[in-house]
Amino acid sequence: MSEMNCNVILDLLELYSDGVVSEDTKALVEGHLYECGKCEEKLLRIRQNLSIPAETNPEPIKQIKRRIKKKNLIISLVSVFIVATILLGAFYYVSQHKVAIPFNKTHIYSVEQGDNDWEIRINYMDNIDEYQTFLKRIDDITMEYYIFFYDTYHTRYFSNRIATNSIISIPAYEGLKQSQGEGLINVQTVRIYYCIYTSGNGRRDFSERYLIWEKQH
């Protein structure tokens, strides 16, 4: 095989390897390769150089995957924390947050004298979680007593109402000590109010106040 033919074929090998030669040129190159080991070896080297080597160092890809996995884990944990916080907050608000009960929701059906002047009995139909009271002295012979009920949204909307009653102690009509000094006062009038109030700046403002019991001594 002449050197001139090899030079021509060598010029055509890259085009031949890429498959962009005509059928006649392809037949010419293949016929030459069949007879010329040198050109055939050259073709093999061309094809090896054109092939994409496999990734021999996968570490950068592994690092990227680890970062993505870590980021997804952080996002998942933050999402779980936010959802848990919302759920716990909602549970606390529904089950623990105390809400003042309006008078028309207390279902008080009777208020009566207890066994002595120190007590009254309030009968109501509800699941009252808690009640509070405070006294207000009007003058030397008049005392007002305020009571208010609390419940939670869970008690209000998810519990069965039951008939119950509460015995509440009130001051004796006679012999009540004054808040200052050792003298005694003779209370002649006691009034009991159901109320809802807000407090601030050392004072109480009533949003509701209903007289539910009064006794003249």
Task: Describe it.
By secondary structure, the chain is of the alpha+beta class. The chain has three domains: 3-50, no CATH class; 54-96; 99-216, no CATH class. The protein contains five helices and ten strands; from the N terminus they run H-H-H-H-E-E-E-E-E-H-E-E-E-E-E. Strands 1, 4, 5, 9 and 10 form a five-stranded mixed beta sheet that branches. Helix 1 (3-18) packs across helix 2 (23-35), helix 1 (3-18) runs parallel beside helix 3 (37-50) and helix 2 (23-35) packs across helix 3 (37-50). The longest helix has 37 residues, at 59-95. The model has no long low-confidence stretch (mean pLDDT 77).
Structural class: alpha+beta
**Poorly predicted runs of 5 or more residues:** none
Distance between the termini: 141 Å
What integer is the average pLDDT? 77
Topology as a string of helices (H) and strands (E): HHHHEEEEEHEEEEE
Describe the global form.
rod-shaped
Main β sheet profile? 5 strands, mixed
The radius of gyration computed from the alpha-carbon positions, rounded to a whole number of angstroms, is 48 Å
Helix proportion of residues, in percent? Answer: 25-40%
Please give the oligomerization state of what you see: single chain
Give the beta-strand count: 10
Give the total of domains.
3
Query: Approximately how much beta-strand content do the residues carry?
Result: 25-35%
* Number of separate helices: 5
